[in-house]
Amino acid sequence: MESGKDILVPDLLAFVKAFECKLRLWEHQLNQNKFTHFARLAELRPTPAACRRYAAALSELRGEFERRFKDVCACEKEFKLFSSPFDVDSVDVADDLQLELIELQCSESHRTKFALLSPMKFWHSLSASSAFPALVREALRLASLFGSTYSCEQLFSRTKLKKNKTRAQLTDAHLQDVLLLASSSIKPDIDSLSASKNHQPSH
């Protein structure tokens, strides 16, 4: 399963479903004494009884995944609205989103734009207008859900680096500003910021 800064919950769901499908395939193949994806195991020539044990272990692992991620899978329709809005049936979304979704799906220009952009960039482009306020609000809510602990772990690591014995005078407010700069992917416009300041020439 992949991890990274830009992994969202819809991405996490896709990884989980793909892995569960692989487990189901491997379980079926081992029950059939087939080793298509287990070259090393094929060299060992396991007995049918051993293959059944391996298949049972995979079945148990798949069941554990289903239990662990059942809350995420229960929201699959919501995530699909974010990642594939043009493939969602309007009756499957909340009442306050239905009319906006129909209008969005009937817009060829928006359909073309979605094909050219990532879901995140597509919804960001819509947020600049007031055409689909409810849909954009829902999309931003889904986009705010982290699909991995990468960002949190990275923030804790940077906190440890920034706040140490040599920086004992660092206040909480300054630490917050430093961490915001360290964790943000937004590039500051230095030229615009410096242009608004009064520069004092050296003598």
From TrEMBL:
It comes from the Eukaryota. One of its GO terms (molecular function) is protein dimerization activity. InterPro entries: HATC_C_dom. Pfam families: Dimer_Tnp_hAT. Residues 116-180 form the HAT C-terminal dimerisation domain. This is HAT C-terminal dimerisation domain-containing protein.
